[in-house]
Amino acid sequence: MHDDLNWAIGGEAGDGIDSTGKVFAQALSRAGRHVFTSKDFASRIRGGYTAYKVRTSVDKVQSVVDRLDVLIALTERTVEENLDELHEGSVIIYDGERTEFSGFEVPEGMVGLDIPLKSLAEDAGGALMRNVVALGAVCEVAEFPIENLDESLRKRFGSKGEKIVENNKEAARLGADYVDEHYADDVGTLDYELETTDNDYVLLNGDEAIGMGAIAAGCKFYSGYPITPATDVMTYLKGRIEEFGGHVVQAEDELSAINMALGAARAGARSMTATSGPGIDLMSETFGLVATSETPLVIADVMRSGPSTGMPTKQEQGDLNMLLYGGHGEIPRFVVAPTTVADCFHKTVEAFNLAEKYQTPVYIAADLSMAVTEETFAPEEFDMDAVEIDRGKVVDEDEISKWQNEKDQFKPHAVTADGVSPRAFPGTEGGVHMSTGLEHDDLGRRTEDTDERIEQVDKRNRKVETAREEEDWSPVEYGDSDADTLVISWGSNEGALVEALDFLEEDGVDVRVLSVPYIFPRPDLSTAVEDAETTIVVECNATGQFADVIEKDVLERVDRINKYNGVRFKADELANDIKEVLA
Amino acid sequence: MSSDVRFTDFKSDKQPTWCPGCGDFGTMNGIMKGLAETGNSPDDTFVVAGIGCSGKIGTYLRSYALHGVHGRALPVGTGVKIANPDIEVVVAGGDGDGYSIGAGHFIHAVRRNIDITYVVMDNRIYGLTKGQASPTSREDFETATTPEGPKQPPVNPLALALSAGGSFIAQSFSSNALRHQEIVQKAIEHDGFSLVNTFSPCVTFNDVDTYDYFRDSIVDLDETEHDPTDRDAAKEKILDSEKEYIGVLWEDEDAVDYNTAHGVEGNMADIDESGAPEGATDLVREFY
């Protein structure tokens, strides 16, 4: 009996692929099953191939695999696009009544379920529900009671009225009945049975987790400009952050977005923007101003394939060098890199604390794969009670005199041992000061004095040293800690790598995995690299940007696995890649 | 806001490095007096500037201030105003900063009707880079980079503001100290985005748009029958390229400013430092 299922619905953009996929993913999650979704989409509104994939198991799933068990093909192209992942015994659900399927032949060894999706949908009340008919069919194939769809159908269609919800439930039932009536023998031999559990799961993607983390951290101001795949952060916050006294502005461009966020931060708000690579380019000039004016700001870069406009809807981790080194001059900054959807929440909370404690910009290096991937988690993973807020050295009117010079002028860039100066928000009596992108003295006023220049540069850089000592930058470890092979990863590759361990274990290959969620400052990996016979750095870019950084740190060559075709790592594929390096 | 504020409270102890006779002195004095007269204090005021001669204002005018990057002062001011609506926000810019590199932000700040006062020190030239044509330079204004003149019409900032739905559009001349102060005051008092395009002559590089030129050619709207609440009359004057009007050309007293329209109130600097805000747990529930 199979409990794991890799399922997809594919067709043209505009066919309702996403919402159908989401309904099924939510139904599985609500039924206490683990879910991991991924999307193949093109950068266009209508037309073009698009697919929503769902992997589900009662056990934790945290990556995609090179396998597709059940496919709802709304177009014949959907079958072609997924032929590599389909296997003997895979089920293809299609509507043979559609003209484009005339002459369609089910690939050999696969189970074709020709279902009149549109006609059945019309019987249930409208042709639009053909995807739901197909979902009902999938439930029958996978022995997953269709009642499990009820709540997610209600969530999806409830706003349109009870009648529509009932019609959809009926559509699902017609789909299931059709399979039972015509294909009971075919699907019976597949022996699927998706078990339900009492587990209590939530299903969300990385962009949503970043948005939720921002609210949890007390972020009140968000300004952004729509860009794939970061837009969902703004979509999430809009309509929610207001309930917590915050506000979202859709700015006229990324330059405006970061400058608005900077203004709000100067006014004392926890403030953030999110964008993708091209937006980071545009923000770079102001990024320097943020750093030199010592303004706390959180900037999420949800990476996609570059350079230039690259492949906007495809995965890549190609912006690392820019996040580490971008901007003219030398800029103290932090770069945190969440490794899972849930980690997007935690790292965002942390980013706000780092930003305010050290009065620096903090980059969140997220990527498309985690941003658009929905994953199930126990709700405790988003523990609001565990959220801590550290606003750093904010001074009020009572303490202000400690930070004034003999002329009662406030020193926003006072030179301190830890590199961190006091902050006074506008409205604070006695805290009046200016800030500037020009090199300045401790009062914030322009200077070209050579000693003051060195003092201020050292002071700003000292914050990073303080943070290195005060914060925990440890990587997360998986696998066999005594293994000769060390695999280092950052960002969303963690899930695939963790699952790859199982495949490797089957082949007797022991691996130690370090998943690094902090790029700058980062953990000291030198001992781990020295202890290993082989070190492999896994990342979704062509040149091995993180591998370069590690080599510089450890003064040792490391091996690399790079993937840059626009698709995230798959667990089984990654296991093979690792074996190849070791061979 | 304290009532015993004097305009000298807005003066820093830094001596301006503007050229002697620069129009920016008068423009800045008008801002300081306007702020003091409207009852603001340096503690409750935020001044933002971009790059260029105008950008230096934050050093000489004493208030909370940010001297930002070229052309982006308005977005910074917008962020400050949304995050704390109680703060009086004044943005100072130059014609290059505001109408060239920052033109996009200008249009959008106008249409957003964010309650900030935008004073543009318009000297119709790039001064700090030593005398190139600016977006408000005349078509035949000869400079090293435009030896035969820009050969393109100057930007009309007032027309841009009007077409973008501006709710307060004024023009001023830095040399007319009292009149300038009065116009800035009205701009500060206006609830919404206020543009005060201020003729602020560059005595070093612009020998065309000089004090004498403006003195001879400006028409003060207070000496005419102009009604600033008459949009058509404002339009006519704004599009009149023959005259240099000063005064309030247009004020829409019914316009609703951004924060009011969006229900933004309260100081966003105030957050619960004990942990996630109350009700945050409900956010997780949404994902069931």
From TrEMBL, chain A:
Residues 213-458 form the Pyruvate flavodoxin/ferredoxin oxidoreductase pyrimidine binding domain. One of its GO terms (molecular function) is 2-oxoglutarate synthase activity. Residues 13-176 form the Pyruvate/ketoisovalerate oxidoreductase catalytic domain. CDD domains: TPP_PYR_PFOR_IOR-alpha_like (cd07034). InterPro entries: 2-oxoacid/accept_OxRdtase_asu, Pyruvate:ferred/Flavod_OxRd, Pyrv/ketoisovalerate_OxRed_cat, Pyrv_Fd/Flavodoxin_OxRdtase_N, Pyrv_flavodox_OxRed_cen, THDP-binding, Transketo_C/PFOR_II. It is an enzyme of class 1 (oxidoreductase). It comes from the Archaea. It catalyses: 2 oxidized [2Fe-2S]-[ferredoxin] + 2-oxoglutarate + CoA = succinyl-CoA + 2 reduced [2Fe-2S]-[ferredoxin] + CO2 + H(+). Keywords: Oxidoreductase. Its EC number is 1.2.7.3. It holds the Pfam family POR_N. GO terms for biological process: organic acid metabolic process; response to oxidative stress; sulfur compound biosynthetic process. Heterotetramer of the KorA, KorB, KorC and KorD subunits. PANTHER family: 2-OXOGLUTARATE OXIDOREDUCTASE SUBUNIT KORA, PYRUVATE-FLAVODOXIN OXIDOREDUCTASE-RELATED. NCBIfam families: OAFO_sf. This is 2-oxoglutarate synthase subunit KorA. It comes from Halarchaeum grantii. The lineage of its organism: Archaea, Methanobacteriati, Methanobacteriota, Stenosarchaea group, Halobacteria.
TrEMBL record, chain B:
One of its GO terms (molecular function) is oxidoreductase activity, acting on the aldehyde or oxo group of donors, iron-sulfur protein as acceptor. Residues 51-197 form the Thiamine pyrophosphate enzyme TPP-binding domain. One of its GO terms (biological process) is sulfur compound biosynthetic process. Its cofactor is [4Fe-4S] cluster; Mg(2+); thiamine diphosphate. NCBIfam families: PorB_KorB (TIGR02177). Residues 202-261 form the Pyruvate ferredoxin oxidoreductase beta subunit C-terminal domain. Keywords: Iron, Iron-sulfur, Magnesium, Metal-binding, Oxidoreductase, Thiamine pyrophosphate. Residues 130-154 are annotated as: Disordered. PANTHER family: 2-OXOGLUTARATE OXIDOREDUCTASE SUBUNIT KORB, 2-OXOGLUTARATE OXIDOREDUCTASE SUBUNIT KORB-RELATED. Pfam families: PFO_beta_C, TPP_enzyme_C. InterPro entries: 2-oxoacid:Fd_oxidoreductase, OFOB, PFO_beta_C, THDP-binding, TPP_enzyme_TPP-bd. The keyword Ion transport does not apply. It comes from the Archaea. This is 2-oxoacid ferredoxin oxidoreductase subunit beta. CDD domains: TPP_OGFOR.
